[in-house]
Amino acid sequence: MLKKTIALTLLVLSACGHASAGGERPKPTRADRIEKSDEAWKEALSAEEYRILRQAGTERAFTGKYWDDHAPGVYVCAGCGLELFSSTDKFDSGTGWPSFSKPMASDRVDEHSDVSYGMVRTEVACARCGGHLGHVFPDGPRPTGLRYCINGNVLDKQPLPEAKPKP
Question: Using alpha carbons only, how large is the chain's radius of gyration in Å?
Answer without folding.
Answer: 17
